[in-house]
């Protein structure tokens, strides 16, 4: 399944509805704060059971799968300073739009969220923002490295959308951009799937769709499970609402404890979702 970055508004709406139906969506839950979440001052080590360890270097993290096996696996969090075109280590976006934001402002005060929302997790003040326009849907992406080959992992992520207005206008005016229609998160390996050799040797791919309909100004917590081979890419596509001319924005938060090793993957789990 290949998304086109430039689609008409009507095609985008239809495509997104179809993708939501076809994706392996589980029940999406609004954020419930976790009181035991670590603060930003802690080392950004991933917890996968057993002991935790390793050191933080440029946004990457090391951890222990169990007390006897150490694996230096790395993934970039979305924790960084805010600003337009400013992305955490290891992150990027299509068209270099947008960057990193906080719960009050888009970027570094380039715009104000019309409705200020809560932190995605306690102590998490910044997150990645993508931008959609009437001409194309935006996307943000990163890569997971050094995962244990043949194991299955669970990634926890948070997504949201909110209307934006110029920061020099009072919020009481209620003038802002439309909310994004939704997002689709893709997890893909860089190795090909032999079962799909007749279809351009597509890589193993898993996806999860989230609709923002009636769910603006809140963080939606989701999980996705996938199998690891070589380095694994994560891409979050945004979807612009049908018929809207003004830009829309979507936010993504992946924290320090976002990935969990579930052990060896079963044979049936290697089928593409």
From TrEMBL:
This is Uncharacterized protein. It comes from the Bacteria. Keywords: Signal. Residues 50-61 have a biased composition (Gly residues). Residues 31-61 are annotated as: Disordered. It comes from Dyadobacter sediminis. Residues 1-26 form the signal peptide.
């Amino acid at each position: 399944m290949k998304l086109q970055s430039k689609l008409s508004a009507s095609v985008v709406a239809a495509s997104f509805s179809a993708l939501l139906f076809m994706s392996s969506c589980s029940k999406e839950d609004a954020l419930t704060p976790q009181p035991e979440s670590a603060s930003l001052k802690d080392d950004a080590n991933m917890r996968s059971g057993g002991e935790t360890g390793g050191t933080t270097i440029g946004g990457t993290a090391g951890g222990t799968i169990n007390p006897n096996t150490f694996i230096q696996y790395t993934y970039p969090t979305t924790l960084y300073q805010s600003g337009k075109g400013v992305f955490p280590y290891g992150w990027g976006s299509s068209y270099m739009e947008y960057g990193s934001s906080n719960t009050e402002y888009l970027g570094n005060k380039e715009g104000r969220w019309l409705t200020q929302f809560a932190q995605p997790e306690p102590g998490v003040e910044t997150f990645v923002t993508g931008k959609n326009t009437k001409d194309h849907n935006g996307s943000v992406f990163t890569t997971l490295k050094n995962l244990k080959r043949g194991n299955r992992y669970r990634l926890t992520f948070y997504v949201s959308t909110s209307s934006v207005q110029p920061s020099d206008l009072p919020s009481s005016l209620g003038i802002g951009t439309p909310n994004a229609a939704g997002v689709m998160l893709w997890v893909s390996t860089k190795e090909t799937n032999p079962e799909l050799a007749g279809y351009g040797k597509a890589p193993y791919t898993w996806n999860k769709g989230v609709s923002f309909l009636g769910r603006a100004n809140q963080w939606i917590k989701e999980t996705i499970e996938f199998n690891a081979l070589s380095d694994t890419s994560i891409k979050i596509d945004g979807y612009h609402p049908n018929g809207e001319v003004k830009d829309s924005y979507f936010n993504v938060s992946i924290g320090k404890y976002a990935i969990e090793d579930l052990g060896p993957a079963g044979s049936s789990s290697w089928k593409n979702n």
